[in-house]
Amino acid sequence: MVQKLLGIRRMLERHGFWNTLYALALDSIASIFVLRILRGVYVEAPDPSFLRCPDPYTAGFLPAQELREYTRDPDTELSASFLDQALARGDECYAIRDGQTLAAYGWYSFGGTPIGIGDLVLTFDRRYVYMYKGFTDPRYRGQRLHGIGMTRAMQHYKDNGCKGLVSYVEARNFDSLKSCLRMGYRVFGSVYVTRIFGRYVALSSPGCRRFDFRLRSAQIGPAYRTFGKAGSRSTLP
Q1: Which residues, including other chains, have CB under 8 Å from residue 92's CB and lie 6 or more apart?
Q2: CATH value at residue 131
Q3: Closest CA to 35 of 23, 20, 52, 19
Q4: What is the pTM of this model?
Q5: 3-state secondary structure string, 92-122?
Q6: What value, to the nearest 5°, has the Cα angle with vertex 198 and ends 196 and 203?
Q7: Most exposed among 2, 11, 115, 213, judged by the fewest C-beta atoms under 10 Å?
C-alpha cells in the first residue's frame, strides 16, 4: 500500500491531478476486464536538430548477421525469436552504436505487425512506416539518441517515397507520450482493445481513418512494401 501511495504521489508531481485520475481509472477498469487504449501518433517532418549523429557514435541500419550477435546479450532486449519474426516480415532496425555497444535502436515495419495482444496485428496506410520497439541502453539515456535515430531513419524513408512515421503509445504512459511530442509526433486518434468471450475486439476512433490505423486478426495475410533497403550504413552526415 505504501509503495502504491508513493507511486500515486510521484505521478501527481510529474503529470498533474487529471492525468493521475485518468490513469487510476484505467487501472481500476483493467482490474475488472481487459482494456487497452493505444494513442496513435504520427510525424512527417524530420526535425533538423535531430539529424546529426554526435561523436563518437555511429548510426545506420544493421544487417541480420550483426543483429544476431546482439541477441547473445540480454541487456539489448533482442531475442532470437523476436529477430526471426521481425526479419521474416522484412522489418528493419536502425541503431546508434558506441563502438560495438548497442546504445539505442528502433524497429521499422512496412505492413501488419504483431503488438503482443492475442493474434492482433497493427495495420496502417502503406504510405507510412510503423516505428516500434524503441530502446535506449540505460547508460546512454538523456542524450536524445532515440530521437536522433528515429529522425534519421525517417529521413531515409522519406527520401525513398514514404510520407512519415506512425506509432502508438499506451494511454497511461504519459512519459513516453511526452517524449514523442518532443520529437515532433502528433496524436491522431486512439484504438480501444478489450476481450469478449475469449476474443479480442478492437475499435479505432474516427481520427485513425486518415492513417487506416487499426488492429485485425493475423489470420488475414498482411501486405508489405519496402521503401528502399538501406543496408548497414546511413547516407546522412
Answers
A1: 61, 107, 108, 229, 230
A2: 3.40.630.30
A3: 23
A4: 0.82
A5: EEEEEEECCEEEEEEEEECCCEECCCCCEEE
A6: 40
A7: 2
- The grid cell for 180 is 514523442
Q: Which helix (H) or strand (E) element contains residue 146?
A: helix 145-159
Question: Residue 11 is part of which domain span?
Answer: 1-32
What is the number of other CB atoms lying within 10 angstroms of the CB of residue 108?
27
Residues 140 and 68 in one domain: yes
Asked whether residue 74 falls in the same domain as residue 117, the answer is yes
Which residues face 203 on adjacent strands?
192
Domains contained in the chain, number: 2
Instruction: Name the strand (E) or helix (H) holding 217.
Output: strand 214-217
The closest alpha carbon to 122, from 47, 180, 208, belongs to 208
Asked if 114 and 156 sit in the same domain, the reply is yes
Q: Is 45 helix (H, G, I), strand (E, B) or coil?
A: coil
Residue 232 falls inside a structural domain:
no
pLDDT in tens for each of the 237 residues of the chain? Answer: 655 555 556 656 565 655 565 455 555 555 555 688 899 999 999 999 999 999 999 999 999 999 999 999 999 999 999 999 999 999 999 999 999 999 999 999 999 999 999 889 999 999 999 999 999 999 999 999 999 999 999 999 999 999 999 999 998 787 888 888 888 899 999 999 988 888 888 999 999 999 999 999 877 554 444 555 544 333 344
Identify whether residues 106 and 137 lie together within a single domain.
yes
